[in-house]
Amino acid sequence: MKRFSGVASALAVAAPVAFFAPSAFAAFPTLDDSVARARVNALAVAEARGAVTIAASTMVGARLSPLTNPYLEVQADRGRYTEDVAINGMLFLPLELNGQRGARIDEADHLIRLRQNEMVDVQARITGEVAMAYGDVLVSTARVADATRAEDAARTEVEYFAARLAVGDVTVFEKNLSEAELARWAQNRAEASIRLIEARSLLAQLTGVADVEAPPSADAPPAPPSLRTPFTPSALTQLADGSPMLRSLASEATFWDASRERLSSEKSAPVNLIVNGGRGDAGELRAGGGVSWTLPMTRRNQGEIARAEAEKVRVTSYRETAKNVVLARAKAAYETFAASRDAIAAQDATGIPATERVVDAANASYKAGKGELLRVFIARRDLAVARSRRLDLLAIAWRAYGSLAMLKGSLP
């Protein structure tokens, strides 16, 4: 009954698909909605789900009776001095008596668990990739909004300087400088739009939908994600212990151990129970029986067993190293996330406001006739660089957040 429930759960992995049928999002989704849909619809998840179903099908063969296919042999002969034809029939009933059926069931059960854990590992990686792609969409949207606002302002200035030039209040140099600034912002906006298209496409592919709408533009810059679990040394250790990748590797080692047990049980061929009967040349009835078996002396699945043992050693050794890698990645991701959030907070508190004051001062100086237009544009470019650097830090924070989600298997 226990094994049946394991197979049933393996076959039920496709049930959530009906609730997340591929389609387009009506509006920009939340991060939780994106992750939930991706954990069902992503191509890698669909492939892993199919592998679970295939693994579950091996249980059908594993549960077959220990009595294998009977073998019937009928012989007839007639001698030179015999009066009639002698007929002899032999029925062989191969019976597995070395625990082969139980070993096969155990191996199939561990294979199902392995494929299930591998699917969980795939879903963990998809969760991290979705978090990164989601952050890219938000950052790219903010870049488009910044570039669009700057382009609109530059176009207004071009019109302003064109009108001033017509009455001789400004020089041709100032008009040309404003047009060059407009061209620069138009190019920045085009580049940001392309990056947004790519980010939306990646998020749509990961979530298995036809398209993802861009989030609405906001006047305030987007904030970095927040951790749902505070970072502590114990949290880091728990993350490593519960890592889906490490659980998958442990499950693989157990599978190879079960495979070795199955191969070991099969080194003894099934015992043949023999029932024979026939008719002698004198017409008399003949009946009998016997037993035959193959002695496992020279061939005992040595090669197959050695490979299974080597595979277990390989996986075990790899898992020990992978645990240290997971710890290192998680620690670096936590530190990167914290450093990027601190840098964003510093930019919001001092960096960007100070640059905005420089822009205001440059504008006031130019309008008062005490400064050059070029200084105004340079100040604006410095402000644009400061805002762009903030978005770069925001992208770094989202990537670190996605790395943590990938290692943990859920949003951290």
Largest sheet: 4 strands, antiparallel
Elements, N to C (H/E): HHHEEHHHHEEHH
Which regions are unreliable across 5 or more consecutive residues at pLDDT < 50?
1-5, 10-15
Query: How much helix is in the residues?
Result: 55-70%
N/C terminus separation: 36 Å
Total helices: the number is 9
What is the topology, as strand order, of the major beta sheet?
1-2-3-4
Number of strands: 4
Q: Helix/strand/pairing class, anyone? A: alpha+beta
Q: What coarse outline follows from CA principal-axis ratios? A: elongated
**Overall pLDDT metric:** 86
Radius of gyration: 36 Å
**Quaternary structure:** single chain
β-strand amount: 5-15%
Short description:
By secondary structure, the chain is an alpha+beta fold. The chain is elongated. It is 67% helix and 8% strand.
